[in-house]
Amino acid sequence: MIITIDGSAGSGKSTVARKLAARLGIAYLDTGAMYRAIAWVGLQQGIDFEDSAALLEIARRITLEVDCGPTHTRIRADGQDVSEAVRSLAVSEVTPYVARHAGIRALLVERQRALGRRLGSLVAEGRDQGSVVFTDADVKFVLDADPKVRAQRRLADLTADGESVKIAEVMENLIRRDQDDCVQWAPLLKSGEAIVLDTSHMELAEVVDRLVELVSDRVRAPAGLRPDADGNA
Ligand code: DC
User: Fold this and answer.
1) What is the pTM for the complete model shown?
2) Which fold has domain 2-209?
3) Which tens digits make up the pLDDT trace of 45-86?
4) Ligand 1 lining (C-beta closer than 6 Å)
5) Which atom of ligand 1 is nearest to the CA of 177?
6) Which long-range contacts (CB under 8 A, 24 or more apart) does 194-197 make?
7) pLDDT, tens digit (0-9, with 9 covering 90-100), for 175-226
8) Residue 144 in 3-state DSSP?
């Protein structure tokens, strides 16, 4: 079974995707970590992120190892485990340069499809998983939340990781990313293929319970009689 979770930054999709995978006992693929790993290598090498040829060269040359399980995605770049290092704000700031690069996207989309073929079942999380990477997914979700709520969540995560940042800085980073990100998942809204869930006023456990329920309904219901996020068939 392939389930995709796309949506805006800070909508809670990473944690929700990981918990959903754990509940279903299938692999969790955090595709953002792949874009972030390339950005991390770029920072280590001190490249100019406007130099798209240099970025593509890194993406082509590095060995990315992605280890997906029901509770984790761990990522190694050239043999070094960078799973934690890629979460920093410094990496978040430059990852959009990587994500905007069509050549790098093509490479990573192929890698993600290959992982899907190898694993068979997975919860794939990103911004293009339902619209580009796994267009035949069994269930597609899009998570969203109020920008203020998303900024607060992001700030809490970064503070827990020991980063010292201000809410205004986080908000600015989110707004900038929203412009790039929604281009990826907007087609799913237009086509009505995805189940959209606003998580602004939901606890994490509630969101996960709801998604488990919706996945079970989808698996049981014949096409054409499938419920939306509010349970309406
Ligand atoms: O989900 P995240 O915050 O880890 O994503 C990091 C960056 O990578 C963000 O700029 C969006 C981008 N990204 C993307 O373009 N496509 C994906 N499938 C996953 C992430």
Assistant:
1) 0.89
2) Rossmann fold (3.40.50)
3) 999 999 999 999 999 999 999 999 999 999 999 999 999 999
4) 9, 31-32, 35-36, 95-96, 99, 126-128, 177, 181
5) 10
6) 194/6, 194/130, 194/140, 194/141, 194/142, 195/139, 195/140, 195/141, 195/142, 195/228, 195/229, 196/141, 196/142, 196/143, 196/144, 196/229, 197/141, 197/142, 197/143, 197/144, 197/229
7) 887 877 777 788 888 888 999 999 999 999 999 999 999 999 887 765 554 5
8) strand
